[in-house]
Every structure is written in C-alpha cells, then in structure tokens.
Amino acid sequence: MGLFGKQKISETAIAGQFVLHVCRGVEESWPKIAEELRELFRDDASVLDDQFAPFEFALAVVATQMQALPNLLSADQAARIRSHIVCCLCSDKLGTYPAEAIDEYQAAWDRSLQVPEPPYDRIASVLFDKFGCSDKVSIGKASFKSPTMLMALGSAVVTFGGQFWKAAVSQYRIVT
C-alpha cells in the first residue's frame, strides 16, 4: 500500500493496462460499432471491413482518452505516461505509424481548441479520412464530409473511452 491507502503502480504498468483496456475493448466491441456505423456509411460500408479499421479506431480512442492525463496528473508525469502509451502501441511490424497517428489526432484536438469547436469533430474528421470514406454531402458546387457520419464517428470514439484515467488516479498512486 502507498500513500493514503492507495496501491502503487508504475507509469509503464498503468500505460500498459490502459492500452490493453482500449485494445481489448475495441476488439470485443468492433463488430457492434461497425454494424452501427455501417447503417450510416451507405456506399462506404466496406471500409469498416478493413482488417486495420478496429486498430485505427483504437488509436483515435487512445488519443482522445489521453487528453485527461494533464488534467489529472502533473504535466511531466502526463507526458511520460503518454510516451509509455505510444511505446506500447509501436512495434517492429507497425513501425512508427501508431505514434504518427496519435500525433495527428492530437494536432486535430489542439486545432479544435483554437477555433473553438468540439474536439471530437476534428478527431472524427481525421478518422473519416483514415478510413478512406467518401460519403459526402453536396450543396451546389461545394462538397462536405457527411455531417451525420462525422457525428457518428465522434460519438463512437467518445462513448467508447470511458473513465479509465479517472478511476486509475483514484485507485492507484502512479509512480515513476
């Protein structure tokens, strides 16, 4: 037991637990998530069958859920845990793609805060592009990403994430 009756857990261990939590959850839930999204994708439904679609979705969830870290932990600890999370996701087979994707989602989040607009809209837009969606809405000569699809993707990412970090900080004393 640690300070105030909390168990100690290392930053690397909690990062690994988080990655497993998200990846296992997405693996179990992807068929249902894809089915719900398929109803909206119309012509783009096949992109959800891509073998990497669940992993891309998991990366969007990871990037979104990491936004809680600086609010719950010191800036330096949040940065270290973020780095551990990214290391957990990168491998010889995947290379640096997970790190680059998370950086892309982070940049989208940061841009949305400057506008201001809901950050989930930008995350959904990046995910829309990464899925290779082509579902557009046209008004005259202007063409836009399907607002319905963006809303559905954003909602799926947000509702999937849960309260992992809040629970972890309540339960554990996270140490280096």
Topology:
Blueprint: E1 7-10, H1 11-41, H2 53-65, H3 69-72, H4 75-89, H5 97-114, H6 119-130, E2 136-139, E3 142-145, H7 147-161, H8 164-171, E4 172-175
Parallel strand pairs: 1-4
Antiparallel strand pairs: 2-3
Helix pairs in contact: 1-2, 1-4, 1-7, 2-5, 2-6, 2-7, 5-6, 6-7
Question: What does the model show?
Answer:
By secondary structure, this protein is mainly α. It has eight helices and four strands, in the order βααααααββααβ. The strands form two sheets. A two-stranded parallel sheet has the order 1-4. Strands 2-3 form a two-stranded antiparallel sheet. Strand 2 and strand 3 form a beta hairpin. The protein is globular, with a radius of gyration of 17 Å.
Summarize this, please?
The protein is mainly α and 176 residues long. The protein has helices at residues 11-41, 53-65, 69-72, 75-89, 97-114, 119-130, 147-161, 164-171; strands at residues 7-10, 136-139, 142-145, 172-175. The mean pLDDT is 90.
